Amino acid sequence: MQHTLNITTRNEASVVERLLQVTRYRGYQLAGLAMTPLTDRAGLQITLTVQSEKPITLLTSQLVKLYDVQQLELASADVAVLRA
């Protein structure tokens, strides 16, 4: 099953590395990655597409714990998971 995540993060050098590391450790295969800087250049809008038969909540629950993640939206299921 394929899932698309829209993630808003701080614009830090290692944020993409952390996202991909958690994705790999949880056993999800990367199917696509797109990044766009936010207008204020303080953050990034990342679209991450992953594939796995595992429930996507196993990945989203770990990604929202990352310090640099400000907001996460599960676009493939129209369900939003927000981080304050």
Structure, described:
GO terms for molecular function: acetolactate synthase activity. The chain is 21% helix and 44% strand. The chain has helices at residues 15-25, 57-63; strands at 2-10, 29-37, 43-51, 69-74, 79-82. The protein has a single domain, classed as Alpha-Beta Plaits. It has a 5-stranded antiparallel beta sheet with strand order 2-3-1-4-5, with helices on one face. A hairpin with a 5-residue loop joins strand 2 (29-37) and strand 3. By secondary structure, the protein is α+β, with helices and mostly antiparallel strands.
Give structural attributes:
84 residues; alpha+beta; Alpha-Beta Plaits; five-stranded antiparallel beta sheet; 2 helices; 5 strands; 21% helix; ACT-like_dom_sf; EC 2.2.1.6; transferase; acetolactate synthase activity
Task: Report, as a whole number of angstroms, the end-to-end distance.
Answer: 28 Å
Task: Please state the structural category.
Answer: alpha+beta
Tally of helical segments: 2
Give the overall pLDDT as a whole number: 88
CATH fold descriptor:
Alpha-Beta Plaits
- Which strand-content bin applies to the residues? 35-45%
What strand order characterises the main sheet? 2-3-1-4-5
How much helicity do the residues have? 10-25%
Described by strand count, sense and barrel closure, the largest sheet is: 5 strands, antiparallel
The ordered string of helix (H) and strand (E) elements is EHEEHEE
Architecture per CATH nomenclature, i.e. the level-2 architecture: 2-Layer Sandwich
Radius of gyration: 12 Å
The CATH superfamily label reads ACT domain
Which CATH class applies here?
Alpha Beta
Number of strands: 5
